[in-house]
Amino acid sequence: MPKLTVNGREIEVEQGLTVLQACEQAGVEIPRFCYHERLSIAGNCRMCLVAMERSPKPIASCAMPAADGMVIHTDTPEVQKARKGVMEFLLINHPLDCPICDQGGECDLQDQAMGYGPDHSRFHENKRAVPEKYMGPLIKTFMTRCIHCTRCIRFATEVAGVPELGATGRGEHVEVGTYVGKALSSELSGNLIDLCPVGALTSAPYAFHARSWELRKTESVDVMDAVGSNIRVDARGLEVLRVLPRTNDEVNEEWISDKTRFACDGLRRQRLDRPYVRCDGKLHPATWSEAFAAIADRLRGVDGVRVAALAGDSADAESMFALKGLMASLGSPNRDCRQDGAKLEAGVRASYLFNTTIAGIERADACLLIGTNPRREATVLNARLRKRHLAGGFPIGLIGEAADLTYAYQHLGAGPETLAELVAGRHPFADTLDKAETPMLILGMGALARADGAAVLFAARRLAEQCGLVDPDHAWNGFNVLQMAAARVGGLDLGFVPADGGRDTEAILDGAGKGEIEVVYLLGADEIDTGRLGEAFVIYQGHHGDAGAMRADVVLPGGAYTEKHGTYVNTEGRPQIGRPAVSPPGDAREDWTIIRALSAALGCALPFDELASLRAAIEEAHPVFARIDEATPANWAAFGRDAETGVDPFASPVANYYMTDPISRASATMAQCTATFVSGADTKTGTHG
Amino acid sequence: MSDEVRMGDAADQPQAFVLSDENREKAQAMISLFPEGRQASAVLPILDLAQRQNDGWLPRVALDYVAELLGIPRIQVYEVATFYSMLNLAPVGRHHVQVCTNLSCWLRGSDDVLTACKNVLGIEPGETTDDGLFTLSEAECLGACVNAPMMQIGDDYYEDLDAGSAQAVLTALTEGKTPEPGPQNGRKGCEPAGKLTSLTDKPAKARRKKAPATPVEKGGA
Lengths: 689, 221
What we know:
The structure holds 2 protein chains of 2 kinds.
Chain A: E1 3-6, E2 9-12, H1 19-25, E3 49-52, E4 59-60, E5 71-73, H2 77-92, H3 108-116, E6 139-141, H4 151-160, E7 166-168, E8 175-177, H5 191-195, E9 201-203, E10 216-221, E11 230-236, E12 239-245, H6 258-262, E13 276-279, E14 282-285, H7 288-299, E15 307-311, H8 317-330, E16 334-336, E17 366-370, H9 374-377, H10 379-391, E18 396-399, E19 410-413, H11 416-423, H12 428-435, E20 439-443, H13 445-448, H14 453-466, E21 470-471, E22 476-477, E23 479-481, H15 488-493, H16 505-514, E24 519-523, E25 537-542, H17 547-551, E26 554-557, E27 566-569, E28 575-578, H18 591-601, H19 611-621, H20 662-666, H21 668-678
Chain B: H1 3-7, H2 21-32, H3 43-53, H4 60-70, H5 74-83, E1 95-100, H6 103-107, H7 110-121, E2 134-139, E3 151-153, E4 156-159, H8 163-174, E5 182-183
Parallel strand pairs in B: 1-2, 4-5
Antiparallel strand pairs in B: 1-3, 3-4
Helix pairs in contact in B: 2-3, 3-4, 4-5, 7-8
């Protein structure tokens, strides 16, 4: 381990670190633009110059490996002069238009110019101007402000896996762009906005809406997919203006997907802001007490087995727990949180978790994807798979739809028959898994949300057991189910599945159609075929006027994920807490409080009045919720059903990545993305201004 | 300089490009020079091949073709193609006249050479004559400072120019002749312009003991 001296202080650092990292460990801040800890080293901004004894010139600390006996100075007049010089050069062509720049207030260049730069400009010539580039509906460009740090190029090439950005031209004529005016075809493109140290790449939907210091920042969790990306919700007044990532190396590193980041404008549209009751076939605004009275009237005298509840994909654990309690007191065993009909079992926790954990992907040495397109279903997790792929020695096989996943893989087959071949050991990829030390498989909803899902689950378990994917002795579990719904693992953990003799989603819909189910409670469940609900009395509790609310007889307005306290368990089984950034609109309330109030109106008040006592009750019944932010390993046991699998090929349930839930369906930004990327008009034409 | 400008008009862009059989063979030979996984290194010679095949310029389809041939992202080829001034992304005339206006040539009178070229051809740098015979460009240092000022036409260097000799070279080309490349003032290669000013004493005999160092004469040519 090299020992070096930084500003007179001797420190010992790990082998392979750079001087810049060593300085950081010594508590010395080094200004930088091009260096980013998660990207390759470019060394082209020169802002990180430091003085090294016995070196005739200042060295670029980001690119210099820390070596034994180095003596580094970061505060000498020589270093200050070097930084000042670099800053002056950077500012030669950078417009001094901070007051009209969207990055103002959160700009690396602005901050570092204050800290290290000269106090005035000596440059009296014309600055160069660069034409704007087209980078799709999400990224607004001001290329004149670009300082050519190449972070965006490196991110697109390395992390996002879409090598479409580059620096063309040379010298004074260098321009960063796609060269052919094409939108960046990545679901991670929004991260370029965070990476850009200046105002060259800014958020298009957020452009000129607010200044960073006006925003109230709330740390929360994303619900657009089951990854549970850690986010920061920035709000002003009652409006959520933007969503940014929070660093969590266990989950999302510091990236979030475009849907997570940009769907937040959907929170302002098509909101349910007051209760509604259907009279004469039309929904009429009502008060809370009228709505509760309508429900109480309808439920009077109805047998519990004729009542059912379905939980949607972004329901928080608190409201599902409360609804489960309410259903129990109504005597109903019919409840389900698997509205897509996925054949997941609530009994064995390991059967529905991403057991390897997301960070654990980096320890795996072979991977089999079954019926999943992780790029669309869990974008940030896919970036982790790509990161592992780039590290090398990671054969990936895919059974299912062939698609561009941003990394190379072997396409083994399309459907269950290929999986059966692997289980029987007749396929060469079974050998690959067998020989690997830490093999993993990822089972997607495309393989489970179908009639033979339980049989596929069984086959996958057999394969996992045969090929040594599960190795408790070495704390390795390579069996993974990739969930897509933020609420799903929480729902399964809470046992929001049919009780003994109860009906599951399919049977509930079936029963409602036949008149055997009289009342259906939809807790934000919009992804079902509401046409099958027949004559049933439908109570919809949720935040958007989507499919469920259209069909409802009573609408109870709840809060979206940015408006309530909620616990969400991600696909790894990691409970994380979301916090309200704004209050729900109008008369809408936090979801669990609605259920609590309704229970009182129905005369069977639930035994908790405040969040703390509700959470205590959840933790008592389900201890896994007590370990917030931790992915508790699950025990291996038998699951699945030994049955004949079908012949249909696996297909990813996500056809349009940009619109998968009520919030993203209401978002104008996501609609633009759909038009650009999904409908296929991704090149700029002469009429685009 | 925006990419649109460098790329030439959309009207000039052909729809398809493939290397001829002969050139494809050459390209494969170039690729095979590099170790497995480093084929991208052959991008420059192959771009040059493609440019020579396509009348001295590279349309976008040619760049895409080279990217596919080497199995590298298109943007990487665009980056290379826009970086090097030897690669033309818009059509050029049959004779591409590149006048060096960098420091050494400028000190030795490249302004006169460029003015002479403009006068003879009747075009400004960056333009092509109407007959498609000449394209005039200003170039940065082409590495022939010892014979400054100079210009490159096609693959040939015309050196030690002045207004008159530049004009003569271009006039000869206009008449379909091929002027002799190299210095245009009668100098041979890059030997001293006047008489020798250094290394004038007799070479020291081998095996003789090293003489005390004599001060090196300053100056030179």
